[in-house]
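Q: Hi! New to this. If I give you a protein sequence and the SMILES for 3IX, can you show me the bound structure?
A: Yes, paste them in.
Q: Okay, here:
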Amino acid sequence: MTESTTLDIWNPGWPDPFRPTVDADDEYADLVDALREVQEAVTRSLPTPEAAAEAAATLREVARQMRSHEVDEDTQIAGKRWDIPGKAHALAPVLHIDTVTDTTATGRVTVGRFHSGRYAMNGGVTPLIFDELLARLANSAGRPWGRTAYLNVNFRALAPLHTELTVTAELVGQEGRKRFLRGAMYHGDILVADVDGLWVELKPEQTQNISKDLEGRDR
Ligand SMILES: CCCCC/C=C\C/C=C\C/C=C\C/C=C\CCCC(=O)SCCNC(=O)CCNC(=O)[C@H](O)C(C)(C)COP(=O)(O)OP(=O)(O)OC[C@H]1O[C@@H](n2cnc3c(N)ncnc32)[C@H](O)[C@@H]1OP(=O)(O)O
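A: Thanks. Here is the predicted structure of the protein with 3IX bound:
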């Protein structure tokens, strides 16, 4: 094994982003945690053909079970649990939102190899994290719902895996329906990425499909 491949073999001392704190009796959140664990474990593995075939059959069986509980998008839980990091959506990195004021928000995120480019966070994942925190701020403090119009992300340094990163967001201006936000991601003192984003307040006819999604939103 080369030195580079040993760098990212699972280390029990790393923070574990795949098991966020949820109530033990919160079965749905636990299901999504389990799915995150599968995503990470599959990503990290090189199973034998037999083991791969066995795992594929097991996963297809789980998919079959879940299809028997299928609901429409208004009713699904994935992505709508505002009360837990990652909102119970297995693709989204588990972002812990610590503070949201009228004009600022902060959070923490740790990603593993599922979200890796190569030994660092994939460049498509960074905007997902910014979108989550900046959107939460853009739409907080009683502001009517707005939609992301742009997110201009600058990648300043590699974002390490298995390491807690801090994320900040700030509302820097408002002009009519437009809300301008800025955000940054840090590894310790190192600026990893920053972002400029625009949220545009929706017109009444644009909100028809989302009112149900907003139920349970804390702010
Ligand atoms: C994969 C991981 C997933 C994790 C998922 C987790 C959860 C998800 C699940 C459930 C979610 C739960 C709740 C969420 C509920 C709903 C919301 C989700 C929202 C999104 O996830 S969203 C996705 C990305 N988002 C889009 O899909 C936007 C597509 N787009 C549009 O919907 C329109 O485009 C819109 C509305 C943005 C504007 O359209 P409009 O017609 O209302 O606005 P209009 O033209 O009047 O412009 C007004 C003024 O904004 C300026 N302006 C507009 N756009 C600009 C731009 N790009 N650059 C510079 N300026 C711009 C104009 O220049 C004008 O400026 P001025 O007034 O000064 O002239």
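A: DSSP finds four helices and six strands in the chain. Let me know if you'd like me to explain how to read the tokens.
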